[in-house]
Amino acid sequence: MGEYRLLLKHVDVPGYDTLEVYRQYGGYEALEKALQMERQAVIDEVKKSGLRGRGGAGFPAWIKWNGIPKDDDKPHYVICNSDEGEPGTFKDFELMYKAPHQLIEGMIIAGYAVRAKCGYIYIRGEYVECARKVRRAIDEAYKAGYLGKNILGSGFDYDIYIHMGAGSYECGEESALMSSLMGERGMPRLKFPHAPLPTIAGVWDCPTLINNCESLSCVPHIIRNGGEWYAQLGASTKNSRGTKIFSVSGHVNRPGNYEVEFGTPLMELIEMAGGVAGGKLKGIIPGGSSMPILPAEKCENAIIGYEELMEVGSMVGSGGCMVLNEHTCIVHFAWRTAEFYAHESCGKCTPCREGTRWMVQILERILQGKGRMEDIDLLLEICDQIDGRSFCALGDAAAWPVRAFIKNFRHEFEYYIQHGRSMYADNPESQKMFPPKGYQRYNPMRYEYTFGYAPRK
Amino acid sequence: MPRAKNAQPKLVNIEINGIPLQVPEGELLVEAAKRIGEDIPIFCYHKYMKPVGMCRMCLVEVGYKQPDGSVRKMPKPQASCTLPCTEGLVAWTQSEQIIKDRRAVLEFLLINHPLDCPICDRGGECPLQNNTQFYGPPISRYIEIKRHLPKAFPLSKYVMLDLERCIQCGRCVRFTEEISGDAQLALLFRGAQTQPHTFQLTEFTSRFSGNVIEICPVGALTSRTYRFRARPWDIVTQKSICTMCSNGCNLYFDSRAGKVVRINARENPEVNETWTCDKGKFEQVEFLNAPNRLTQPMRRNGTAWEPISWAQAYELMLERFARARGAVGGLAGTRLSNEALYLFQKLMRAGFQSNHIDHRMTRYQGDLWAHAQSLLNKPPVANEYRDLEATHLIFVFGADLIDEQPMVFLRARKAWRHYGVKVAVAYPVANAVEEFAETRLRYRAGSELALVKGLLYILLDKLPAETVAANLPDHEWLRALLQDCTPAWTQDHTGIAAEQLLAFADTIASVPSMLILTGEKVWNHPESEELVKHLMWLTRLTGNCHQESGGLNLLPLGANEQGASDMGVLPNRLPGYALVEDEAARERFTQAWGAPVPSTPGLNTDGILQACLTGEIQALYLAGANPVREHYDPTLAERALRACEFVVVQDSHMTESAEYADLLLPACTVAESEGTYTNWERRVQRFWRALEPPGESKPDWLIFAELWLRQVRQTPPFNPREVMCEIASLVPQYAECTYEALGDSGKRWG
After folding, report:
1. What angle separates helix A410-419 from helix A374-386, to the nearest 10 degrees?
2. Is the predicted ipTM greater than 0.85, yes or no?
3. Which of A44, A99, A188, B365 is least surrounded, with the fewest CB atoms within 10 Å of its CB?
């Protein structure tokens, strides 16, 4: 089916991040159109488009939009989740860096539809350059009258603020993001049915619409071309509509962001990225490191789509498509993934806080050649004990990949434990993938992480 | 919105383990399960704090009944501590999956928890230990190295932190954020390194720091005063009441080998919920175990104390009191129980024929009851703890609330935090209430009266004429009295900007009900009589004397100051506030006591002390009172005691006043006697005897009873219960306050 560029269509045009060039390509037409429409009509348009959240969970966007109370006195807020922390995902970077006005336009339309007073863009702390671009774009939009008081004479007031994260992966979880935005510790908050939905009581206990950067960037296109038009894209899938940006990385010849229609075969995406580099395909993690890996044989007939990928045992997630070639040592990969989640666990709930660390410790022991055969089953059981028991999805995200690695590549773990070394230890192709000897980026046993204390002698 | 005081919650139908039951809507599932006796294990959940669902110990399987009658089960187990009950909720707390999940959580918690239970203070009463026993795995599969962190890190004078034992439930951090409000503890770092600590390892100086020790579900936070002193199975626990202020917190005294080693809070939702302040929890232990206890009756012999027997002491005292022939006075302390206070005034009145008795040490020694009855038609303290949550504005006036009334402070803060009650504070210096008060009035010290006058002046104009007329029909004279007290005048006198005062008056005028809390600055104001009257007019003018959830609260300071007034330890009032001039009342008491009651009102504290100087009082009885320390004019007290011919001091400890005594009678502390206390909200609460009296000391009530026997030659009461029956039959307010009726949680009169 080939690449279908909708959000990324003009990103390579020089100066597309400025208002002038953006307007040449039809920028802010959608906003003008939306401001003429009834607020409910905008929401209906999003409903018709079948847009689903692009952040990972794939929740229908219009339900959130429609859930904001329509006749209350509280201020409403729109939040754009650009805290793109998922390893392997870098789509929001390009969207913000190269097409900031597209995002701002989407946010204004969203704000108009849900009667918000202001919007926040929560940008990942490391994305300083993006934040600068977005800042410049917001300033331009204010000057041009797209933001501020009485936008385009419609009587609608709207402000956008940028909030930079401080480098926590957990703050990309929507309720932790809201805590962080309010100046609290970036820990997840209670969710429905334990607490009201964010659309009723989000930031500062006010109705809040929180969407991913990519979802909001889709909105101008939906409004400009109509929801029905958007719904035609990806019509071959069960319930996924529109396009999705995949950040293809790993062992491919041309890593980068590729936008495809839903319904495109997964292998076609890899072909777009120049095919597998350095050998045959071993597996693909289609949706960022939290998602289970797909071994090569399952990749053959995988179709990109929320339900379609779930059928073969993985998920679209945030679109961080990682490709592994045949020389990759899965045990190392599992350890590195587990290490990330142990480092990023916020420490709120027991299963995630203790379980992730335990998994790292076991995997580290296996890497040191001191593994036991029962460790494999123990890892699986720890995964079961974390999955679904943790407070937020970070625990699940830590358990799913490890479980999938063991289920699909158990023989590699067994080999490693039996021989005390990797299957690929002698493979010259693999050498560059191993971390240098003695490398330990994060070790939960180290004391530097607890200031003020010295280890007990 | 303030919480409605007696609202009836809506009931919903739920089902737990197949047992259908009705619970109030929104009740948490973990609480609902207790109704059917189903105990869900918990760590992070605490009844009086906001649930967070951190520890995942309370996971249960949950489903919702669908309209067609089927049950839709949720795919993941849910934390029952955060799940509010709604119609059609179905929960399973014992399923195979849940048993597995609990085991998993405990296994996770124990991988880093040191198994040093044998030397841990919590061992024996540790929720982690108990839950592991009941729900945990028999062995751990964890073979990695455990996390090692410093043990025994002193956080403050009272609290010791052992980070290795911490299970990161966050209870202590939430307590300092939600309840005490000082937010001194925080979770530092993240993930497996998460640890509760003070910022930058500074000292943990909260006034409520002791509570974190109690709510810690493991031995991570331990008490430095109790550490290694006893094990839970060799201490004896007894119910008691705090004597450090008039809040009447319910406590447990834990004693070992005749010594109180620890004080814990006892739950009473109407009073202290489950909190204590550090004064009650730690300083009280120091007080009870202070080395200067009196254990033997002693008389002065030149510069030395000569130990004598009780019989000799009584003989000496009665002889000297008889020689004084009615020129005797008595001051009672506010740590005495109601029974002791009642017997004290009975002895002084009917035994020694003297009405010169009092308990007040502040400047205000007027007839408070008469003022309150005539101006407000209510007792001087109108409200109770619950009213703080139901009112619309709490006005803290002249009180350093956190210091004087710690529990009232916590309740006021809760009312502000949970129910959006507005808070205003007027105090000369910075104080803790200012942190959440909407209005902060820092007046010039001593200008309380000017401030109230200024407020009255503005309110007379600001309130609608018909309201003023209805609340204060004869307001013209008040207008005339206050004609000079313009906002500009008030600004000159108090230092509070006129605009701020006007804005505050606006707030008062706009709220439906206001609750005034006053403190030491009112009692000790040079013109305290005037000030109290003005405060009553303010209450009356704003219509709050008719409000159920509003009104004036002239908070007493001493533990049983309210009880002392109720029991008639006042120069002009008999028990139950009957006037001594009242023929009928006197007749009633004469009948009951079998001895006549003098009919002229006596002298108040200041009068008694002055009379000692002039020799009009020749014998003074200080029963638990320490005027040298407590009286607002210590010099006067000192001179008076020095001048008085014969001073009897009856106290548990060697006090400053006891240095001037001619006879010392060793009495008991709260831990060694039995009785009742009446706290500021007029709640009569029982305390029980936890220890044997040391040496030859006797409970106060017993000393009075024995003196009564020797002086009046009548059968004395044999125990406090009997005294309380007598009080109940004579004092109408206490008619229902027999020990049987009081129970564990007490009863509020009026």
Report:
1. 130
2. yes
3. A44
